[in-house]
């Protein structure tokens, strides 16, 4: 759910550190507390200041991971879903 930015540079150069923290938990890892930062994100779908978690590590080649928090701002879900998901066991 949470968007994450890898701290590969001096974060003060391009973002504002918020007075908040975010709790993160991976599939098999312990919960960790990371600082929240404000960055201005500009894409074809969004042009606003967003809050992200600042982390030391992301998978190789990834510096910014857009989570559902930002994705749903740019592309909201429809008010009513017309399809049903079918699962089998």
Description:
The structure is a single chain. The protein has one helix and five strands. It is mainly beta and 89 residues long. The protein has one domain. Strands 2-3-4-1-5 form a five-stranded mixed beta sheet, with no helix packed on it. A hairpin with a 4-residue loop joins strand 3 and strand 4 (47-55).
| Content of β-strand | 35-45%
Structural class, by secondary structure, is mainly beta
Enumerate how many helices there are, as a single number.
Answer: 1
Poorly predicted tracts of residues: none
Shape: globular
Mean pLDDT: 77
Q: How many β-strand stretches?
A: 5
The span between the termini is 27 Å
Radius of gyration: 16 Å
Q: Helicity level, as a percent range?
A: under 10%
If strands are numbered along the chain, what order do they take across the biggest sheet? 2-3-4-1-5
Largest β sheet strand count, sense and barrel closure: 5 strands, mixed
Succession of helices and strands: EEEEEH
Quickly count the domains.
1
Summarize the structure.
This protein is mostly beta strands.
Keywords:
89 residues; mainly beta; single chain
């Amino acid at each position: 759910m949470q968007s994450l930015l890898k701290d590969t540079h001096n974060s003060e150069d391009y973002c504002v550190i918020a007075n908040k923290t975010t709790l993160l938990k991976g599939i098999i890892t312990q919960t960790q507390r990371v600082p929240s930062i404000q960055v201005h994100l500009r894409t074809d779908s969004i042009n606003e200041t967003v809050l992200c978690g600042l982390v030391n590590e992301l998978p190789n080649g990834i510096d910014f991971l857009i989570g559902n928090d930002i994705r749903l701002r740019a592309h909201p879900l429809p008010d009513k879903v017309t399809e049903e998901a079918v699962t089998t066991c």
